[in-house]
Amino acid sequence: MPLREIAISDIENIKVGHAQDLAGITGCTVLLCEAGAPTGLDVRGGGPASRETELLSPVASCQGIHGILLSGGSAFGLDAAAGVMQYLEEKDIGFPVGPTVVPLVCASCLFDLNIGDPGVRPGPSMGYDACLDAATRFQDAMGNIGAGTGATVGKYLGTDYAMKSGLGSYAVQIGELKVGAIVAVNALGDIFDCDNGQQLAGLLNEKKDAFRNTEFQFYDAYAGIRNVFTGNTTIGAIITNGKFDKVQMKKVAAMAHNGFARAIRPVHTTADGDSIYAMSVGNIQADLDVVGTLSATVMARAIKNAVLHAASLGGYPSARELCIK
């Protein structure tokens, strides 16, 4: 059965919204499921910044969450989740606790403090604004928006040779089944086209008219690899209308990391906090391995879209500006 490309917004029971500060060059993205969605998480990078992710543990009693926040601002950006909780509580969405409800919101952040104004970070007001955007947004957006506003790639030799990245999405439908990915690409490594292997973005040469290969740079420095700290991190989510529990969705998230590996090299380093959520927002019967396999495909193509839709910003050139072949 052939795959048909659709928009993330074509997947039912999920709302996606963004807020950003283009002067400060940071932002956040929210995914809201008002009915609650069984959600899994798989973290492969060595430096994650996260909030409330223990809710997704197989032994935690929580069976569904109401929102995911993807944010810039490093660990400071976790504060934006408070705005998401405020918005949901005002809508009476959350776990009932008697006098009120407690919205269950998980969050992951990427490091973008080295672009724009490092004192500007997503906070509660920006998280709230992203929810307002989700309530009224009917079209997908990619590039310098939301959590991708301050995203960059190819940073192994420092910011002078890095490139602008952004937020990307991609979704498909097969029969009644829908699977989509949304991702903010802020990798230490280089970005490759998952379909033909061509390098799309990443580490630039000294003249900034061609690419260098970060993997080869790694190998050359094997005895004394550079101190690249945890200033990176690619964060994203899989959304499907397939019916699964949170344990099964953790497996989907794990398989979606194959999409990271197809599009980002090197990936899952100690200097990245690479994290993927996976949300089940529907009741379509589907095979777990089929959804996991599709998740890797849509994630790899969402990463491609993130760099191809990004515009130059903050002194970082974009792939579409340089047109390196």
Describe this structure in words.
The chain is an alpha+beta fold. 23% of the residues lie in helices and 28% in strands. It is built from six helices and 18 strands. The strands form five sheets. Strands 1-12-13-16-18-4 form a six-stranded mixed beta sheet. β12 and β13 form a beta hairpin. α1 crosses α2 and α4 crosses α5 (288-309). The protein is globular, with a radius of gyration of 18 Å. 58% of the residues are buried. The mean pLDDT is 92.
Number of helical elements: 6
Overall mean pLDDT stands at 92
**For the largest beta sheet, what order do the strands appear in spatially?**
1-12-13-16-18-4
Please tally the β strands and state the result.
Answer: 18
What is the H-and-E element order? EEEEEEHEEEHEEEEEEHEHEEHH
Q: What percent of residues adopt helix (DSSP H or I)?
A: 10-25%
SS strand fraction: 25-35%
Radius of gyration: 18 Å
Structural class of the secondary elements? alpha+beta
Oligomer: single chain
Distance N to C terminus? 34 Å
Main sheet specs: 6 strands, mixed
Which ranges are low-confidence, i.e. pLDDT below 50, for 5 or more consecutive residues?
A: none
Give the CA-based shape: globular
Keywords:
alpha+beta, 6 helices, 5-stranded mixed β-sheet, 18 strands
Summarize the structure.
The chain has 325 residues and is an alpha+beta fold. The chain has helices spanning 80-90, 124-136, 214-220, 246-263, 288-309, 319-322, and strands spanning 4-6, 15-21, 26-37, 39-43, 49-51, 65-71, 95-96, 101-102, 105-109, 152-153, 163-164, 167-174, 177-184, 190-192, 199-201, 235-242, 264-265, 275-284. The strands form five sheets. The chain has a six-stranded mixed beta sheet with strand order 1-12-13-16-18-4. A five-stranded mixed beta sheet has the order 2-3-6-9-5. The protein has a three-stranded antiparallel beta sheet with strand order 15-14-17.
